[in-house]
Amino acid sequence: MKFSEAEENYIKSIYHLQLSNNKVSATLLAAAVNTKAASVTDMLKKLQLKKLINYKPYQSFTLTDKGNKVALDIIRKHRLWEFFLVSKLGFKWDEVHAIAEELEHISSEELILRLDNFLDNPSFDPHGDPIPDRNGKIKFIPQKNLSAAPLKKELIVSSIKDQSSEMLELLKHYHIGIGTKMKINKRFDFDGSVEIKIDKLPVAIVSEQMAKNIFCKI
Amino acid sequence: MKFSEAEENYIKSIYHLQLSNNKVSATLLAAAVNTKAASVTDMLKKLQLKKLINYKPYQSFTLTDKGNKVALDIIRKHRLWEFFLVSKLGFKWDEVHAIAEELEHISSEELILRLDNFLDNPSFDPHGDPIPDRNGKIKFIPQKNLSAAPLKKELIVSSIKDQSSEMLELLKHYHIGIGTKMKINKRFDFDGSVEIKIDKLPVAIVSEQMAKNIFCKI
DNA sequence: TAATATATTTAGACGAATCTAATAATTATT
DNA sequence: AATAATTATTAGATTCGTCTAAATATATTA
Questions:
Q1: What's the CATH number where B177 sits?
Q2: Which residues have C-beta within 8 Å of that of residue A1, sequence separation ≥ 6?
Q3: Which of A184, A217, B122, B172 is most buried, taking the most CB atoms under 10 A from its CB?
Q4: Which nucleotide minimizes the distance between its C1' and the CA of A61?
Q5: Among residues B13, B46, B63, which one ends one of the domains?
Q6: Is B30 within a domain?
Q7: Within this chain, do residues A152 and A182 fall inside the same structural domain, yes or no?
Q8: How many domains does chain A have?
Q9: What pLDDT is stored for residue A192 in this prediction?
């Protein structure tokens, strides 16, 4: 079954909101897809008719299994394209999101299969987010951000939540990227800042705000 | 300025029709964009408002310079993507058209610039059609089809008009592709068929219908 | 040139996705 | 629990691209 670009965007946003906020409200969703709550209501009815969500008026809603599959398919495409844009075309990670938002709606399955192979079937996108395989299976990695990870243990950076160019700039300055190894020396209660040590680099301190965006394998 | 997918498709089709039929009628255009003549009229008004075509009711219409630029931009994207699909993802030429029709509407200029470089700035797509450069310049090659090319001279296949899988199959069987060298021995008036000779291959005869679709540098 | 055939445009409607303003339900607060 | 504040839904309108059927203009040909 094929879905409109608008429908796909709603589905994708519901998926993401479910992951982080686990209660999805019409208002949050409206913000995510950049419309008004009234438009969300209209669309929710349509998505329910197509059995993509479970929905009763005035109550919060969830993706059905079918809806989940659709969401994972879109996310797969999005992340594969991001990988392509960064690894083959040399984009910076903060430049690829908008383009991938368009590319993710290209419908050919064959295209995505071939793209996947061309890229050597990557499991993670340039920000460390997992790329669902053709069946929607995600390689889950247990990870904790620097505000929650244990002290004095070797950590490997596995993903970055905030993908803005400001964050990218900061990470560059600290020489931090996906795969970087580090230890946490100390966490300061006063402001939540964290002292880290990266091989061969001097000890450094990152703010709590930054620490919460850097996720590591544990 | 940005245009809708529908607008882009109309512009592109007008461009192509102008090239081959040089008079563009609403009926032809309707067939090309797969709608009805009434819808064409509606769109023509819109395109005129946006100064993309010269149009007076009940008369045939032409692209303005601006319209031409837009058309060439879309065609550039279409052909670059086709090149990508064939050269990097291993598609056959008869498989790429529909996918490129979707990809050609992705809006990022930066994307196309980088794609162009990634592909080493190709001048011709997999069917031998010229790819406009970023300024809309096309590398024009004087070419003639096998029904019009001179006898006994070395010819190099430069493009194929019909891009169906049936044609692809036939070409494979004859060992003909872009770049193939051949001579025409004889043309038969009775049915327009053409006897050709390709290096090291036995003499072969192609139908008039086929001959008209094979273009060569002269 | 008059009659006929063909092509184009208008009029009016529809579905998709959106909006604003008004209303109704839910949740939070006193 | 009653009221206030928040959140969600409906009603009605709008834009885009499309449609059918009817009307009008152009082209053909007898």
A1: 2.30.30.90
A2: A50
A3: A184
A4: D8
A5: B63
A6: yes
A7: yes
A8: 3
A9: 96
Residue (of A181, A214, A217, A177) closest to A200 by Cα position: A181
Query: Is A85–B111 a contact, with Cβ atoms under 8 angstroms apart?
Result: yes
A123 and A149 together in one domain: no
pLDDT of the residue at B6: 98
Whether A22 shows a pLDDT value over 80: the answer reads no
**Mean pLDDT over residues B176-186, rounded?**
96
Question: Least CA distance to A88: which residue of chain B?
Answer: B118
Query: Average pLDDT over chain A, rounded to whole?
Result: 96
If asked whether residues A150 and A201 sit together in one domain, one would say yes
Rounded to a whole number of angstroms, the distance from the CA of A186 to the nearest CA of chain B is 43
Domain extent for A49: 5-63
In this structure, is residue A69 part of a structural domain?
no
C-beta separation of B191 from B153 below 8 A: no
Tell me the CATH number at A109: 1.10.10.10
pLDDT in tens, B22-80: 789 999 999 999 999 999 999 999 999 999 999 999 999 999 999 999 999 999 999 99
What is the ipTM metric for this complex?
Answer: 0.93
Q: Is B127 among the domain residues? A: no
- Boundary-marking domain end, from A16, A40, A63: A63
User: Whose C1' is closest to the CA of B6: which nucleotide?
Assistant: D17
Strand D neighbours among A 2-41, CB < 7 A: 25-27, 37-38, 40-41
Instruction: Say if residue A10 is in the same domain as residue A49.
Output: yes
Cβ neighbours for B215, distance < 8 A, ≥ 6 positions apart: B128, B143, B144, B145, B157, B158, B159, B160, B161
Helices (H), chain B: 5-21, 26-33, 37-49, 65-87, 97-103, 109-118, 165-174, 208-211
Residue A181 within any structural domain of the chain: yes
Residue A49: C-alpha distances to residues A64, A212, B41, B95 (Å): 12, 39, 35, 34
pLDDT of residue A218: 84
Give residue A23's pLDDT. Answer: 86
Name the residue among B34, B38, B36, B10 with its Cα closest to residue B24. B10
